[in-house]
Design goal:
The structure is a single chain. It is built from three helices and five strands. It is an alpha+beta fold and about 150 residues long. It has a single domain (about 15-150), classed as Hotdog Thioesterase (Thiol Ester Dehydrase, Chain A, Roll). The chain has a five-stranded antiparallel β-sheet with strand order 1-3-4-5-2, with helices on one face. A hairpin with a 5-residue loop joins β3 and β4 (about 100-110). It starts with 15 loop residues before the first strand and ends in a 5-residue tail after the last helix.
Length: about 150
């Protein structure tokens, strides 16, 4: 990775992290026996779901509060392939933002702990009528306040 996807903001709390362990399944590889490039967004999704479970900030948690969080932007950088049956990890990192958005960075490492893929997603927040939220809603503000105070890490 040549530069940070989300530069650290001065005074912001440290990013929140979660790691998921996986193994490459047969359905995820192409005829060359490497993971097809289109599978990587679903690996990112695995980390986002694990993040939601760990921090009670998942899709259904938000939905129950009237918040939808669709992906607005996604970027991937490929460095080396993953192969069938290889074990790997996906690290999901939420970077601080006081705006009504979620800035996730992802780092995929193979079983030798070499970085194979990095990337990021930006998720915007909408209400249930698909209106863009310009400021973080109370549920998210509560999460941000607990994060800022170090209650969640």
């Amino acid at each position: 990775m040549s530069r940070a996807y989300f530069p650290r903001q001065e005074g912001a709390p440290p990013p929140l992290r979660v790691t998921v362990e996986r193994q490459v399944r047969f359905e995820e590889v192409d005829p060359l026996n490497i993971v097809w490039h289109g599978r990587y967004p679903s690996f990112f999704e695995d980390a986002r779901v694990a993040f939601g479970e760990k921090y009670s900030m998942g899709y259904l948690d938000c939905y129950e509060q009237g918040i939808l969080c669709p992906i607005k932007q996604m970027h991937l950088d490929y460095f080396r392939p993953l192969r069938f049956q290889e074990r790997f990890s996906i690290e999901g990192i939420l970077h601080w933002s006081s705006a009504a958005r979620l800035n996730f960075e992802f780092i995929i490492r193979n079983q030798a702990q070499e970085i194979t893929t990095t990337g990021y997603t930006v998720q915007m927040m909408l209400d249930t009528e698909m209106n863009l939220m310009l400021i973080a809603p109370p549920y998210v503000n509560d999460f941000l306040e607990r994060w800022e105070k170090g209650i969640i890490q």
